[in-house]
Amino acid sequence: MTFRTAYFVLLTSLVSISAKAMPQDTAPNLSDTAIKVSVQIHGERLPAYSTFDQSNQGQQYEWHLLTKKRLPDGNIQEMPNGWSITLNKIESELVSLSVAFTEQGDSETFLFEKTPQETPQCQRFPFEHNIIHRPVICISTP
Can you list the pairs that 68-71 forms with residues at least 24 positions away whose Cβ atoms lie under 8 Å? Predict the structure, then answer.
């Protein structure tokens, strides 16, 4: 077991996962284009995937990993770390997402544009922190 794997296993035991406004598997409407979006953090998929269609265009979805830290006074402080995806455009020839990653108050936003296919189209992002480390976003058609 490598240090990174051991660290992540320990970290996941200390981190609670919550989702805000996140459809786990939204049944697509009768639109022509539906996409499946997955996120990989440290090689793990969190969440497994979400399915969106054109009716979700323009909406933002957020996922949070809440790191809990005990303060000197005995209280527990929750520090949000996570990512959000804004579905800019969902069409058969182009999917455009704005992807923001946040950890310990540091945040960066990236543009992800791919043509949806059955084979997952993935992109790794240069966001290198302890919890969210070099995340990968993939899209495919369901």
Answer: 68/14, 68/15, 68/16
Strand 15-20: give its sheet, edge to edge. 15-20, 60-70, 76-90, 95-103, 106-114
Q: Cα–Cα distance between 141 and 86 in angstroms, integer?
A: 18
Which residue range is the domain that position 114 belongs to?
Answer: 3-140
Look up the pTM and report it: 0.67
**Structural domain count, the chain:** 1
Of the ranges 40-49, 53-62, 93-102, which one carries the lowest mean pLDDT score? 40-49
- Can you read off the two tokens belonging to residue 127? 């966001």
Q: Please write the tens of the pLDDT for every residue from 111-135.
A: 999 998 999 899 888 888 877 778 8
